[in-house]
Every structure is written in structure tokens, then in C-alpha cells.
Amino acid sequence: MRKMLLPDCKETTRLVLEGEDRQLQPLERARVRLHWRMCTGCARFGRQVELMREAMGSWRRHAEPEESGRQD
User: Fold this and answer.
1) Ranges under pLDDT 70 in the chain
2) What's the pTM value of the predicted model, to 2 decimals?
3) Rounded Cα gap, residues 52 and 31, in angstroms
4) Which pLDDT does position 1 carry in this prediction?
5) Domain ranges in the chain?
């Protein structure tokens, strides 16, 4: 059975979260973007995931010990 082009909210959420662990295929990315254009709740969820990714990256950069070997 062929999947529908437009995924439902559950499928979109799954794809967004999988996108944190792997690069989505072009068709998967297109399906997510298409769904986001029609569903503000899922689009908001996608922005929240992006915000969390950025915050974790920032935290990692600040939490790593300095390269100079200096310890406080």
C-alpha cells in the first residue's frame, strides 16, 4: 500500500524526531514541510525541536572544559 503524500500529525512528529538522529530523505522532508503548511500545531512543534537543538548545542559549547587546560 502506498503512503499518502500528506502525513498525519503522528507521522509528522515521528519524522521530525527521526530527523534528530538521521538525515531525512528528500521526500520525507517535503512531506513534513507540506504538513507544516497546513497544521500550525505541528509547525510549532518543529520550531520547538529546533530551539531545543540550538539550546543543547549552546549548552555543550559552554559546558566543555577550556582547551587551554586551565581549571578553576
Assistant:
1) 1-4, 65-72
2) 0.73
3) 22
4) 38
5) 9-59
